[in-house]
Design brief:
Distance between the termini: 118 Å
Helix content: over 70%
Strand order of the largest sheet: 1-2
Number of helices: 25
Order of helices and strands: HHHHHHHHHHHHHHHEEHHHHEEHHHHHH
Strand content: under 5%
Radius of gyration: 70 Å
Shape: elongated
C-alpha cells in the first residue's frame, strides 16, 4: 500500500538522523537517581579548577589563534557571568605536592606545540580531567623510571657482552696457539716417521740384497748339483742301457731256444696227424720281432724300457705259444690214446658178442643218477647230442644275421635311422633293468614285449615299431638277445644281485618269444663256451688269437685280456644262465612249463663233471653256478642232488686240485669251503638278491 511505503521511508530517515545514530543506555535507571541530579543541580567549580586555571588555560590562550582566543574570552566571560572565578593565590594543599612533583611534566606540556584547547567544564568533568592529567603524569613518571631501569640493564648487558667477547677472544687466541703447537708437533712427527721409514727402507734394501745374493748362491749350487745329477743320470742311463741290451740278448737267446723247441715238434705231426704250422709261423714272427728290436737299438744307441717290454712280451707270447702247443700235442696224444682204447673196446665187445647176447648200453651221465660212480677217465670233448644242439643254435643265429643283412648294410639314411631307433628301443630298456621295484620291472617287460609284438613304442621322443622295415623283427630279436648276454657279461659280473631281475625279464620274453631265447643261448655259448659245456679244440691252420677268442678271451691288438678279467666275465654269464633256468615271469601262464628249466641246469652240471677240469676255470664256474642255482636244484632233486655234491667233493676235487697251480688255488679253496659248509648244514643258502614276493608288491 502507498501508506506503508511512506512509513518505511520515514523510519529510514529517522535512523539516519543524528539522534537516530546515538547510543542509548537502556539500564541507566539501574544506576540510581544521581544521574539526573547533575543536570538539575546548579553548576559549581571543582576543587581542581584552580589548578586547571593556573596550568592549562594560559597555555591554551597562548597557542590558540586570534579567532579562537576571542571566542574563548567571550565564552569565558559568558561563563563567568553566573559565577566569577577569581584566581586565588591560595592553592589546594592536595595539589601542591603534585604540582612540585610534576614540574617536569608541566615543562613537557609547555613544550608541546599542539595543545588542545579546553573549555571550562562542569565540576565532575573538571575532576575527571584532573584525574586524567594526574594519571598521565604518574604514567610518565613510571615510564621515565622504567626507561632508566632499562638503560641500566642494557648497560649491564653491554658490559657483560663486552666481558664475554674479551674472554672469547682470549679462548680464540689460546686455541690458535694450541693449533700452532699441534701443527708443529705433527710436522715433527711426520719428519721423524719419514726418517724412520727411510731407515727401514734402507734396511729392507740391504735385506733384499742379502736375500738375492743368497738365492744366487743357491742357484749356483743347484746348477752345479744339476750338472752332477745329469752326469750321474747319463752314467746310469748308459749302465741301464747296457743292462737292457744284455737282457735283450738273453731274451733273444731264450726266444731262439723256444723256437727250436717249436721246430722239434714236427716229429709229432706225422705221428698224431696234427698241423702245427700255425705255431711255427707265429714263433718265427716273434723271433723276427725280437731281432728287429735288437737291430733298431744297436743303430740308435741303447734300448729303451719300451723295447725291453716289447721283447719280454714277445718272449711271454712265445712261452704261451709253446705251452699251447704242448697242450695241443697232449690233447692229440690223449685223443689218439682214447681212439686206440675205443678200438680195443670195440674189438673186445665184438668178441664178447659172439659168446653172450649184446649187453644194454649205459645211458649218458646226465641221465644217470648222481650217485652212479663216474668213469675213471673223463671226457675232453662234449657229447655228440650236446654238440649238435650247440651247432644248431649257432646256425640259427647266423641265419638271423643273414635275415637282416640288408637293413644292417643299407646306405640309405632313412634305413639307418630306422636301424638306430630299433636298436635303441631294444637295448635301452634292458640297460635300465636293475634291482628296482617290481612295478618298474613290469613296465620294462611290457615295453619289450610290445616291441617284439609289432606294437609301436616310444623311444627317443618318437614312436618306433618293427613294422617300419620287413627285417626289423629279426634285427630287434638279435640285438635284444645280444644285449641280455652283454648285461650278464658286464652288469652281473660287477653286481651279482643284478642277475635275478635281468634273468626274470629274459625268461618271460623267452616264454612269449621262443626265438629270442634260442638267440640268447647262441650268444651265451659263443661268448662263454663253458655254458654248453664245451672246450673248443685247436684246429689245424687256426691262428692263436682266433683260438683264444674261441675259448672266450677278448683279444685286442694282439693282446689277450688278463685272466682275472676273463674269469669275471665268464662268472657273470654263468650266473645269468643259472638265474634264467630257475626263474619264471610271475605274470605269465603258470600252466606252461619253463622253456629252459632246471633240467637243463642238471644236464649242465652232470656234463661238466664228466669232462676233464680246466685250471682255475672249472672251479670258478662250479662255485658261481651252485651259489646261484644250488638252492633251486636242492629243492628239485633233493637226495640225488646231495649225492652229486658228495661226488664233487670226493672224486672231482682231487682232479681239480691236481691241475691247479699254487697261484690259482683261490677259486678252488672258495668252492671247497662253500660245499663243505653246505654239507655241514645240509642246505644250500638262498642266493643274495633273489626276487621274493615282496619285491613284486613294491
Amino acid at each position: 500500500m502507498p501508506s506503508e511505503g511512506r512509513c518505511w521511508e520515514t523510519l529510514q530517515a529517522l535512523r539516519s538522523s543524528d539522534k537516530g545514530r546515538l547510543c542509548y543506555d537502556r539500564d541507566w535507571l539501574l544506576r540510581g537517581e544521581d544521574v539526573l541530579q547533575e543536570c538539575m543541580s546548579l553548576p559549581k567549580l571543582s576543587s581542581y579548577s584552580g589548578w586547571v586555571v593556573d596550568h592549562v588555560l594560559p597555555h591554551i590562550q597562548k597557542n590558540a589563534p586570534p579567532s579562537e582566543t576571542s571566542a574563548s574570552s567571550v565564552s569565558t566571560s559568558a561563563l563567568d557571568q553566573p559565577s566569577s572565578v577569581p584566581r586565588s593565590p591560595l592553592r589546594n594543599p592536595a595539589f601542591s605536592p603534585v604540582s612540585s612533583a610534576t614540574s617536569n611534566g608541566t615543562k613537557d606540556k609547555q613544550e608541546s606545540p599542539h595543545t588542545e584547547p579546553m573549555a571550562l567544564q562542569s565540576p565532575r568533568g573538571m575532576k575527571v580531567e584532573g584525574c586524567i592529567r594526574m594519571y598521565e603524569l604518574v604514567h610518565r613518571m613510571k615510564g621515565a623510571e622504567g626507561l632508566r631501569q632499562w638503560q641500566e640493564e642494557q648497560e649491564k648487558k653491554v658490559q657483560a657482552l663486552s666481558e664475554m667477547a674479551s674472554e672469547q677472544l682470549k679462548r680464540f687466541d689460546e686455541r690458535k696457539e694450541l693449533k700452532h703447537h699441534k701443527e708443529f708437533q705433527d710436522l715433527r712427527e711426520v719428519m721423524e716417521k719419514s726418517s724412520r721409514e727411510a731407515l727401514g727402507q734402507q734396511e729392507k734394501l740391504k735385506a733384499e740384497h742379502r736375500h738375492r745374493a743368497k738365492i744366487l748362491n743357491l742357484k749356483l749350487r743347484e746348477a752345479e748339483q744339476q750338472r752332477l745329477k745329469q752326469e750321474e743320470q747319463e752314467r746310469l742311463r748308459k749302465e741301464e742301457g747296457q743292462a737292457r741290451l744284455r737282457s735283450l740278448y738273453a731274451l733273444q737267446e731264450e726266444v731262439l731256444h723256444l723256437s727250436q723247441q717249436l721246430d722239434s715238434s714236427d716229429q709229432h705231426r706225422d705221428l698224431l696227424q696234427v698241423d702245427l704250422s700255425a705255431f711255427r709261423t707265429r714263433g718265427n714272427q716273434l723271433c723276427g720281432l725280437v731281432s728287429g728290436i735288437i737291430r733298431a737299438t744297436s743303430e740308435n744307441g741303447f734300448p729303451t724300457a719300451e723295447d725291453q717290454a716289447a721283447a719280454e712280451g714277445a718272449l711271454q707270447e712265445m712261452r704261451d705259444l709253446l705251452s699251447n702247443l704242448r697242450q695241443e700235442i697232449s690233447r692229440a696224444c690223449e685223443e689218439k690214446r682214447r681212439q686206440d682204447e675205443e678200438e680195443a673196446r670195440i674189438k673186445q665187445q665184438a668178441a664178447q658178442m659172439q659168446q653172450r647176447p649184446e649187453a644194454h648200453k649205459e645211458s649218458p651221465v646226465p641221465n644217470q643218477g648222481p650217485g652212479a660212480k663216474p668213469n675213471e677217465d673223463l671226457q675232453v670233448k662234449v657229447q655228440d647230442s650236446t654238440m649238435q644242439w650247440y651247432q644248431q643254435l649257432q646256425e640259427a643265429s647266423s641265419r638271423c644275421v643273414l635275415a637282416f643283412e640288408g637293413l644292417s648294410n643299407s646306405k640309405d639314411s632313412q634305413a639307418k635311422k630306422i636301424k638306430m631307433d630299433l636298436q635303441k628301443a631294444a637295448t635301452i630298456p634292458v640297460s635300465q633293468i636293475s634291482t628296482i621295484a617290481g612295478s618298474k620291472l613290469k613296465e620294462i617287460f611290457d615295453k619289450i614285449h610290445s616291441l617284439l609284438s609289432g606294437k609301436p613304442v616310444q623311444s627317443g621322443g618318437h614312436s618306433v615299431s618293427v613294422t617300419l622295415n620287413p627285417q626289423g623283427l629279426d634285427f630287434v630279436q638279435y640285438k635284444l638277445a645280444e644285449k641280455f648276454v652283454k648285461q650278464g657279461e658286464e652288469e652281473v659280473a660287477s653286481h651279482h644281485e643284478a642277475a635275478f631281475p635281468i634273468a626274470v625279464v629274459a625268461s618271460g620274453i623267452w616264454e612269449l618269444h621262443p626265438r629270442v631265447g634260442d638267440l640268447i643261448l647262441a650268444h651265451l655259448h659263443k661268448k662263454c663256451p663253458y655254458s654248453v659245456p664245451f672246450y673248443p679244440a685247436f684246429k689245424e691252420g687256426m691262428a692263436l688269437e682266433d683260438y683264444q677268442r674261441m675259448l672266450g678271451y677278448q683279444v685286442k691288438d694282439s693282446k689277450v685280456e688278463q685272466q682275472d678279467n676273463f674269469l669275471k666275465r665268464m662268472s657273470g654269464m654263468i650266473r645269468l644262465y643259472a638265474a634264467i633256468i630257475q626263474l619264471r615271469w610271475p605274470y605269465g601262464n603258470r600252466q606252461e612249463t619253463h622253456p629252459h628249466g632246471l633240467n637243463h641246469g642238471w644236464r649242465w652240471l652232470a656234463q661238466i663233471l664228466n669232462m676233464e677240469p680246466l685250471s682255475d676255470v672249472t672251479a670258478t664256474l662250479l662255485f658261481d653256478f651252485l651259489e646261484v642255482c644250488g638252492n633251486a636244484l636242492m629243492k628239485q632233486y633233493q637226495v640225488q642232488f646231495w649225492k652229486m655234491i658228495l661226488l664233487i667233493k670226493e672224486d672231482y676235487f682231487p682232479r681239480i686240485e691236481a691241475i691247479t697251480s699254487s697261484g690259482q688255488m683261490g677259486s678252488f679253496i672258495r668252492l671247497k669251503q662253500f660245499l663243505e659248509k653246505c654239507l655241514q648244514h645240509r642246505e644250500i643258502p638262498v642266493p643274495k638278491g633273489f626276487l621274493t614276493s615282496s619285491f613284486w608288491r613294491s
